[in-house]
């Protein structure tokens, strides 16, 4: 148990390992009652009436508010914009993600980062019929020996989408993003580049970010 509630100790270590300087990342085991953490404007901005969905969104916002406190912010509301992206306080960039069990958030100052995207997925292989949808033919050699390679690229591309959509407002398909795992970069068809970090434990955790001053 931490200030933000129940955590997965292995995931916590992995988060510490991949977090770049000045980007705060946290997680929480999604817990019954987390849906009650949604503030009124957040609750109104989430269309789904399904408790599990609202619980996961509440859990992610508990994590995000804990991280924002470290940047000197009070318990601000983080409603969803029409695009689906959370609305962050002025001067802040951030991203949220959740699966059935874990909620994660990443936040940083706009002084240091232009944008950030995060994704978390269970560490199980991508269904074979999704491989061709997610992975570009030229990316295949990077993941040839890795049964979780397709899932890693899936999580990375979702994180890239979350980092780039708030900047460009451009819908991206998986095939619009080219990932270079060795270089730790992803580039979109339009030429926007982001830096990548990822980890594989019980979950695949992917982070995409662009530092202030980069294109
Ligand atoms: C944004 C998207 C990738 C989220 O994926 P998901 O599997 O549904 O859900 P995740 O748990 O990973 O992330 C959910 C969080 O993403 C964030 N999010 C949603 N839309 C977003 C957007 N347009 N930009 C940035 N973040 C967004 C929200 O914070 C959401 O949490 P919330 O509902 O509690 O506020 C997905 O909903 C989407 O819009 N996909 C269309 C584009 C796409 O998938 N292209 C192929 C990959 S490039």
Keywords:
215 residues; alpha+beta; Ribosomal Protein L22, Chain A; 3-stranded antiparallel β-sheet; 27% strand; binds coenzyme A
Short description:
This protein is of the alpha+beta class and 215 residues long.
Q: How many strand elements?
A: 8
Instruction: List SSEs in N-to-C order.
Output: HEHHEEEHHEEEE
- Contiguous low-pLDDT stretches (5 residues minimum) are none
The level 1 CATH classification of the largest domain is Alpha Beta
Strand content: 25-35%
Q: How many distinct domains?
A: 2
Please state the structural category: alpha+beta
Q: Give the strand order of the largest sheet, numbering strands 1, 2, ... along the chain.
A: 4-8-7-6-5
Number of helices: 5
- The best one-word shape is globular
The main sheet comes to: 5 strands, antiparallel
CATH topology heading of the largest domain: Ribosomal Protein L22, Chain A
Heteromolecules bound: coenzyme A
Description:
By secondary structure, the protein is an alpha+beta fold. The chain folds into two domains: 9-113, Alpha-Beta Complex (Ribosomal Protein L22, Chain A); 123-196, no CATH class. The protein is 29% helix and 27% strand. The protein is built from five helices and eight strands, in the order H-E-H-H-E-E-E-H-H-E-E-E-E. The strands form two sheets. The chain has a five-stranded antiparallel β-sheet. It has a three-stranded antiparallel β-sheet with strand order 1-3-2, with helices on both faces. A hairpin with a 3-residue loop joins strand 2 and strand 3 (102-109). The structure holds coenzyme A. Coenzyme A is lined by residues 57, 60, 80, 83-86, 95-98, 119, 157-158, 161-162, 165-166, 172-174, 177.
């Amino acid at each position: 148990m931490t200030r933000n509630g129940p955590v997965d100790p292995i995931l916590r270590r992995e988060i510490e390992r991949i977090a770049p300087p000045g980007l705060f990342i946290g997680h929480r085991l999604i817990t019954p009652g987390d849906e009650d953490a949604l503030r009124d404007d957040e609750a109104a901005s989430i269309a789904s009436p399904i408790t599990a969905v609202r619980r996961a969104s509440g859990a992610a916002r508990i994590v995000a508010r804990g991280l924002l406190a470290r940047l000197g912010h009070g318990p601000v509301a983080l409603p969803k914009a029409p695009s689906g992206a959370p609305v962050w306080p002025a001067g802040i960039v951030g991203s949220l993600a959740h699966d059935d069990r874990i909620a994660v958030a990443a936040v940083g100052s706009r002084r240091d980062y232009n944008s950030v995207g995060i994704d978390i997925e269970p560490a199980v292989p991508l269904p074979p019929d999704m491989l061709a949808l997610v992975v570009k033919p030229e990316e295949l050699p990077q993941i040839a020996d890795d049964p979780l390679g397709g899932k890693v690229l899936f999580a990375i591309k979702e994180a890239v989408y979350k980092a780039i959509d708030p900047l460009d407002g451009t819908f991206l398909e998986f095939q619009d993003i080219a990932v270079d795992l060795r270089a730790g970069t992803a580039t979109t068809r339009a030429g926007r580049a982001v830096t990548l970090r990822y980890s594989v434990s019980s979950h695949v955790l992917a982070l995409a970010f662009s530092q202030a001053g980069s294109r």
